[in-house]
Specification:
The protein is an alpha/beta fold. It contains 6 helices and 9 strands. The strands form 4 sheets. It has a 3-stranded parallel beta sheet. It has a two-stranded antiparallel sheet with strand order 1-2. Strands 3-4 form a two-stranded parallel sheet. A hairpin with a 2-residue loop joins strand 5 and strand 6. The radius of gyration is 16 Å and the shape is globular. It starts with a helix and ends with a strand.
Length: 148
């Protein structure tokens, strides 16, 4: 599925919603992760996407780190549509960081690429935004955050 999705990034409209397409390891983020890993910084991926899909993508792209992602409740060995809380989306990303990583510490560095990452970016010492020419990039420019 990851290979079929393609490596060319883009987007399309589906039922009136913007849908991002393409899966690609972003070079700048990969370099940043390598730099931090070499310095024994613990890496966490926080995503609104379903946990099995992100684990597969991490394995496919050779990304080593911890993961917080959307988790479905499993009943009788079957994934259900019922999501476990806290949800790792929108403001819930910051709540997940506090619950699953450390409630008393703020992240040293957070990188994000969409406005759904805003709550966790705001809690970090260093804020890094992947410039996708979207609303989050505009906010990053206004606030003087790092742009990749």
């Amino acid at each position: 599925t990851i290979t079929e999705e393609g490596s060319k990034l883009g987007s399309k409209m589906l039922f009136g919603h913007h849908i991002e397409r393409g899966l690609q390891k972003r070079r700048e983020i990969a370099l940043l992760m390598d730099f931090l890993r070499e310095r024994q910084v613990e890496l966490w991926i926080v995503s609104a996407t379903a946990e099995p899909a992100i684990r597969a993508a991490m394995k496919h792209f050779g990304i080593d780190g911890y993961l917080i992602a959307s988790r479905s409740t499993i009943k009788n060995d079957v994934y259900t549509q019922e999501l476990q809380e806290p949800l790792s989306m929108f403001e819930g990303k910051a709540e997940c960081i506090k619950k699953f990583i450390d409630p008393s510490k703020v992240p040293f560095l957070v990188a994000g690429d969409s406005t759904s990452d805003l709550s966790m970016l705001e809690m970090a010492d260093i804020k890094v935004v992947v410039d996708r020419n979207n609303e989050l990039a505009k906010i990053a420019r206004e606030r003087g955050w790092f742009l990749l």
